[in-house]
Each structure stands twice: as C-alpha cells, then as structure tokens.
Amino acid sequence: MIRARRTWATAIAALTVVGMSPAVAQARQPPDVRTATATNVNDRDLPPGWRITHGGGGSALEWRSPRPVPAGDARVEFHAGGRLVGAPRPDNDGRTFRLPLDDARAADLTGLQVLAAGRRLDQGDGAASDARDRRSAEPAAPTPPAGLPAGSVDPGRPGTYRTTTGEYTLDPVRLPGFPAPVEMRGVVVAPKDAPGKRPVALFLHGRHSTCYVPGSDEVTVDWPCAGGAEPIPSHRGYLRDQKLLASQGYVTVSISANGVNGQDWNAEDGGAQARSSLVRTHLARWADWAAKPATAPAAVRKAPKTDLSRALLVGHSRGGEGVNRAAMDSLYPPPAGQDGYRGKARWHVRGTVLIGPTIFGQNPVPDVPSLTVLPGCDGDVSDLQGQVYADGTRGVSRGKALHSSVYMVGANHNYFNSEWTPGRAQAPADDDFWHDPEQPDPVCSPGAATRLTADQQHRAGATYIAAAARLFVAGDDRVRELLDGSGRRAPSADPARVLTHAVGANRGAGFLPDGSVKVTGGRLCSAIDPDPRAACLGTAAGGSSPHFAYWQTERETGRRAVALRWSAPGSAVKVRPGKPLSVKGAKSLALRVFVPANTTGTRLDVSVTDAAGKRADLGRVRVDGLPGSDRTSSYWAREVRVPLTAATRAGLDLRRIASLELTPRTGSGQAWLMDAWAWSPGTPAVREAPLARVDIGRLEVKEGDSGVRTYQVPVRVSGKGSGTVRLYVLDPVTGTAEDRLVTVRSGRGAIDVRVKVKGDRRYSWDVSHDVFVKAVRGSVVGSHAGGVTAENDDPMPEITVEPVAGEVTEGQPLTWRVSLSAPADVEMTKTLRIVPVPGRPELSTKDVDPQWLLDLTDEVPDGAVPLSRLDYAYLWASVPAGQTGAEVTVPTIRDQVAEQTEYVGLRSTDDEGEPHGPLLTGTVLDAS
Question: Please, what is the end-to-end C-alpha distance for the chain in angstroms?
Fold first, then answer.
C-alpha cells in the first residue's frame, strides 16, 4: 500500500492581492501549521483508531470511532497540534471518517483530535478520565438562575383557532453540486376558519440521520435511502410548535431536507446554499398556490389564504443557517451558478428563529430580525456558535433590526424536534449530551437540577418561537421584553430558566471593542488568538464562550472584548472610543457583561465622562455566572442596564460621551465586557438597507508541466451600494494568514485576488489557495470560503519492493528496498503487513531486536509470539520527497539455541489494511 504526505516546502506558489481599496492592510503571523515531513509520521505514529489509506482516489487520513457517531449538525473536523487539518467525509457505517490528504491544510499529524463545534469525539479512557478529574472539582449541583418576573403577555398560550394538518409531496428538485434529486415534501398545520390572508411560518430541520431500517437500530446518512430503509421524518418533529402557531392564526409548513443532509458533506458551506435554495423553492410554490389556489395540494387548499409578505422562517441547527441564507438570498440574490432556485422573491421575510444553529460562515443578515436559541446543554453544536447571529451584526448596517440571543439553561440540541427525541421518535434517537454514569455532569446529566426534560424543553422552545412570531410578524411590542434583555419571562416556558440579551432595535451609539478604542486598567482582548496573552478566554477557563466561537482562521482581526481582572475592589477599567458618542434621547445604558460560570454577586459601578471631563456615576449592576461545567459554553453575557438620569442631572453633554468606566466592588474576580449601548424601549420599523454582497467561488486548475501561471480567485460582488469586508488569504506554502479591509461596490465586478502556480513534472498533492471573507460594514457575505485549487496532473511513480538481504544468518538484519520509478514532491510510504509463510516455521518476537519490537508495537509480549500475530504487524518504508528509494529492515538477534530455519512474510495492504499482492519472504538461518 502506497502512502503520500504533502511536503509543503516543495509546493511552490506565490500570492498577490491587487486592485483593492484597502482601508487597512496588516500581515498576520502564520497560524503555526507545520509540514508533515517528519521521517516516521505514518500509521504507527498515529493514535489508536487513526491510519493513512490509499486508493484509486488518492491518499486519505482516516479515523474510525469505536462506537457509532450520530449524524449531527456540527461539522466534524480533524485537528492536529491545535490547528485545523480539514473536514472529513463520513462513511455509511457511522464510524469511519476520511479526509483526502489533497484537501488537508499543512499540518504535522501529531496531537490528532476529532472535534465537532469544539467537542472532542475521539476521547479515549485517558481523556475521559482527565475530564472526570476536572469535573470532580466543580460544584456538585450548580443552582439554576433565579426566576424572572412574568411579562405582560404570554405568547406560549394557545390561540382561539382549531387546527388542521396535512402533507404534500411534489416532484424532487435538482440542486447545484448534489448528484441526487432532493425531495419536496412538507407537513402543513393551519388554522381552521381563520378570516383573511394569514401569515406564514416555514420550518426547516437540521442535519440528522436520513434513513433507518424499521425494527432495528440501523440508521444511515444515505440519500436516497437503500432498499429496506425508510426516510427519517425529521420534518414532522415540530408539529407541537406548528399547532401552537396555527392556533394563533399562522399557516405553517415544515419541510423535509433529507436529500440535503445526505449530500452536504462535501459542500464548502456545509449545505447552507442548498438549504436556502430548497426553502425558497417551497416559498415559490406557495406563492404560485396563492395566485392559483386550485393548483395547490389538498393539504394547502384546506388552509386559509396566505399572506407571504408576512413570512417567518424557523430553522433548527444547520436548518438555522439555511433559513438565514434564505433570508439573505431573498434580499440579495446569490450567483445563479450556485443557486438551485430561479426567480424573484415573491415573499417578505419578517424575521428568523434559529434554534441551536450552526453558522460556519459567520455571516448573519443584519437587517432581518432574528431570535437565536442557545441550548445550555447542547451536545452537538456545543460551542453555541449561533451567538454570532447577534454579535456578528454589530455595526454592519442600520442596526434597527432586533437580534435576540436566548440562552435556555438545561436544554440539549435534539429535544426541540420530537423525531430526534427518544420515546417519541419514529426512528432511533438519543440524547445528544453524552452522559457519563461514573461521573455525571453537574449541569447537563439527566436528573441534574438544571437539566430540562424533553417535554419541558420542547414547550419552552415552542413558546419562544411564538414570541418571535408575535414580535417580528404581528408587531406586538409587548413581547419585546421577553427577548431583549429586559429580564421578563414567558410563564408558558416554566420551569425552564430562559435568559436573553440583544443588539439592534432601539439601541443607539455603542461602546464597541471591535473598533477604534483604548482601554486602561483592563485588557482589550482578542476573541480568536492562539497567544494566551492576547486571547480573551484561556484554555484553563473550565468551559467556553459562545461569543468566541471559532471560525476559519487561527487569528481574527477586529473581533474583541474588554477583559477585567481584579484582586481588590476599586480598580477601575476605562473604555475610550475613537471619538465621543451621542447617547442623547436614550433612557439607559445597556451593557452585555459575563463572568465565570457558577459565580454569583459580581458588582460593578458604571460611570461615564463627557468630552469636557464631566463625570457621572450611573449606578451599580450585579452580574451572576450561568450554571456551567467544562463541557458547556456558559461564558455568556447577561444584559444589565443603568439609567442615564444621573448623567442628565450632572449636566453632562450627552451628545459627546467620551468614556465608559467600570469599577469592581467585589473583593476579586473576572469579567468581560462585550459592548455597551444607548438603549430606549420600543421596536422600530426595519427597512432593509441596500447592501453589497460578496461571494467567493473556487477555481480548480491543472498545475501544468512548466512555467508559472496566474489565476484569478472568483470573488463576485453584487447587491446594491458599497461596503467594507475583511478578506483573509492563506498562503499554502507558509500557512501565513494575511487579512485586509477591502472596499466593495456593487456593479464593480469582483475583488481582484490572484495566485501564482508553478508547474512541474513530478507527482505531488493538490495545492489549495484558500480565501475567506467577513462582512464589516454595509455588506453581506454569501459564500464565505473559496480560492484556487491547483490539481496535481502528474502520475504517481511506480513502486517496487526487492530484497537487499532476503536470507541472513540470525544476528543480521533482513532488508528490503522500496524504489520509486521517479522522484516525487511528496513523501511516499509503502506499508507491508507481516504475514505467515505457508508451511514454514515463523520468526517470533524472541528472534528480533526488543527495542525495534517496542518501537513497532509499543509493547514486548511475554513468550515467543509469531510476528504475524501481533496487533500492529506492519512495516513502513518512507521515501523522502525528491528521493527514489528507502529501505525497511527486520533486525534479528543471535541466540545460543539451536533452531530450524525461520521465515517471515511481507505483503502490501489494501485500503482496509488487509494484505494483498505477491508474498515477499525473508529467511533467517540458525547461527549455531
């Protein structure tokens, strides 16, 4: 079996970014990704469960789990040395994940880990024991947050309408990049006898297993389902939520997306564009049926007439990212080549509800109101990256759309969908938060005081979906206090503890750490940075923060917070923006602040100073930490407010506030300030701004045999108006990430990003020049990732194995030479399986050098064990890049025992590690 690893130093490429309008240009330090060029980085150096395979499609890094890994919404990623290597493809067995090494970023394959949203999937007994040891020092039973006063309205109470339920199935549709058609199926729940045209709510489920075999525990992520298997009806998991909304007068439809789930593993955006295309295709059919009711399916004809100008999109997990993209695409159409929907948007999305969502692109839609539910015990999207749907909109557009973040203590990921809930689901289902019976998690294990039951969780979820509908679609401002950090609860969600904060709406000028700001007495920290001196939250925190969810690059520019640490009360931290802010007309100053999990009673005095130096103490706030463990993302900001009355009385110029000051009044502690805003009550009307849209594509080219060719990265600018984005370009040779601000204008074509590729005639791997983009101001981002992939077009050298010393006397080494027909630009390895020689006595563990044996198998067994019976009976020969041969040896030892001639056999291995091909025989003669 031949193996290949990339030697980045020989993959010559140059990169130039030209023709931009940079506001700022800054070269970033390389993300310390190292080349996999160590002499012996091969299967025996990899942790248990890992190996490198080779087949007709090329070499791949493979991990096999000892137990099935449920199909989830978080993207499974391979990391090494703390750096991203790539996203593997799942096999149908639910255990095996393979990453083509052509797709891998440069990395030393040491310290391998399998992560999904920051959660380890490959933890062995040692890692689990370490986690148990850490948890043993935590509080045995963190207490739930104190209950909040009830709001003036309760959107979780059923309405007055009776409901009707039905389903429709249409012809499947083709979506770009997916070989199999995707189903068009929906379950409709609508009010009976509701007058006039009714608003519409569309639900989209997330990524889950697609098929199951009735009567068994077998589930797969195939599409279409194999014979004997049935589609899992994930789209029927929101009937409870649909019936609540229908009773309140909404026509609801929940659509199936198994065809996307079964094919999105290779999509650069995780399937977001495909899900958007599917959502908008359904909406277009509803628009057709509204115009011609007689053409509608029976389930739709039973429903009242619909008003698609009042549409709410609800998405769970990857479905959340899908409806976010659908809202974006409805306002700012995507490039036609990547879109599966053709036509104009004949609907108006008034808001989105995003439940435990992914946001791989970190590209929210700033002018569409959103409510994001963050489940405190999410075992799938465990980093709670959906927080970016609020944080990522700051300063991007007009800021009038409310973006609410709803933290639901004790909720897991799956139980918002009854078809993903054990005991209710038609197909096999489980609790996504893994439970260790030997050491229960103090927050999230079943039975913990903070953990919700499935019924409690689903009821709370339905209540907050209804709250979003009532605020975003119906315009009932009385509901806002349940969603915007005002500290009110919806009684229908009891006993769930639900906390909220928000950005946008009637928030005015803000103290934002992302911009030009100076901090004294504290630390302006970076959300994403490998340097612990710069990072906001270190690895020793005992948990993580949704505000600092990882994106694509090891460092991010301009994504920051203010870190406070004090050992005595009275040590003030001052935040001074680049220019004075106006808070005139605002009622309060709203701050988003978080403190460590399980802490209580942190008190901070808040004061402001105007440009003339006048100072006013606004008041004191108390911030408590959330219940948390080392497995939860509990470093989440609480919203606290102080009135501006004192500043008015003191005669401050509220149009020119120059600084914000926080003074701790507790003995010692830590806190992080995310931002502070001038706040007033009310929900203003939202007008979508004319924003520029940026999409990055991927160009695949052949490297060629000679010369240097320059290629343009396909970066498309569309939409309306002008804006600013931050462009990140990764150099495939050094791993350096270069970022700069770029001004983009619609109608100006593309951003000019060019790469140079040098051709050669030697075998190597594909070289990927990756580019990423984020919106900064006046823009939205569709496809956030792309670049140019230079494909290797040279044949793999032929490999031969010949004996150098195939017959020796004991005490001498058996030696074979692995030869290449031509040198390669990557390291090549040959794997040989030790096998018996039929009918001949076999060389044993007592006949070989013990240190060699220890290096080979990590242990020396007792007694004489035939080499072919060892668990790791493989030999590896590595041919370095640029060379044409290497030797593999079996060192024998001489003893004083008279023995017969002994033999060892070697055979190449196939993709499954099984021997195949001709037998190579080594003969060891007795020396006595």
Answer: 37
